[in-house]
Design goal:
This protein is mainly beta and 259 residues long. 12% of the residues lie in helices and 32% in strands. It contains three helices and 13 strands. Strands 1, 3, 4, 6, 9, 10, 11 and 13 form an eight-stranded antiparallel sheet that branches. Strands 2-5-12-7-8 form a five-stranded antiparallel sheet, with no helix packed on it. It is globular. The two termini are 22 Å apart.
């Protein structure tokens, strides 16, 4: 972890010094040319539903926050709900920063390197079969906190694979700060300014973790194939948020491009 944190500091410094510059998106940019503001509290420009051409009605702006109004019907409902992606730009090497808070007993997730993958029924595969998920959860009141293995479904964990340690999430109704560093296959999750998860994409270890999860080759071959090659041929993808049927809020969402 120490080596990764040193690398994180180095790539952040390089990005702030200019690098190759960030591709402009349909969203406000900060003074730093490498930073893209995904949500500024006033506009949903650049966003749409996963597999849709519009923003589902349950995703709204409330008090400067991007809010999902829960349906109580479980994850990724059709109609007015569903997962959401920032579709104006794909990201490859980056630091994603944001804050979230969850309703009591709530569940959601943060996706990155996501692809929109069509299935043989004319629809789309779920977003989480192509994207790592940084878990968003009320650890105290949602049953997922006690499922999985060693807490690997608790807040900021790599969902169903690596538990976030230390587990320093704040309770339902309070804001949690998250940063996700993704750089040349190395990924680190930070929760409330502490590094809590580290892993390395496209490695034997990565493939083994997937095969020991709910996305194993035997249980879910489509998910296994997509996740082992997460990011696709170009190792890049969308950032998105999950509709799991519960109220959730996100704010101060921005990406620093590291290439």
């Amino acid at each position: 972890m120490k080596k990764v944190l040193m690398m994180a500091a180095m790539v952040s410094m390089l990005a702030s010094c200019g690098g190759n510059g960030a591709k402009k998106a349909e969203a406000p940019a900060e003074d730093d040319a490498n930073t893209v503001v995904l949500f500024d509290g006033t506009s949903l420009d650049g966003w749409r539903g996963y597999g849709k051409d519009h923003v589902p009605a349950r995703w709204t702006i409330e008090d400067g926050c991007l809010k999902f109004a829960g349906s109580g019907g479980g994850e990724a409902q059709t109609g007015e709900g569903g997962d959401i992606i920032f579709a104006a730009q794909k990201f490859k090497n980056f630091e994603l920063e944001l804050e979230w808070k969850i309703s009591k007993g709530g569940n959601s997730g943060i996706f990155f390197l996501a692809q929109e993958v069509k299935n043989d029924k004319g629809g789309y595969e779920p977003i989480y079969v192509s994207a790592p998920e940084c878990q968003v959860l009320d650890n105290e009141n949602h049953p997922d906190a006690k499922l999985g293995k060693d807490g690997n479904r608790m807040s900021s964990s790599l969902y169903d694979m690596i538990p976030a340690k230390p587990q320093n999430a704040k309770p339902a109704g309070e804001w949690n700060k998250v940063k996700i560093l993704c750089y040349k296959g190395t990924v680190v999750h930070y929760q409330n300014d502490e590094p809590v998860v580290e892993y390395h994409l496209w490695t034997d270890q990565w493939r083994e973790m997937i095969d020991n999860s709910k996305f194993s080759k035997e249980k879910w071959p489509v998910a296994y194939e997509l996740l082992t090659n997460v990011g696709g041929e170009n190792h890049e993808g969308y950032i998105g948020f999950q509709d799991h049927g519960d109220d959730v809020w996100f704010r101060n969402i921005k990406v620093k491009v590291l290439e």
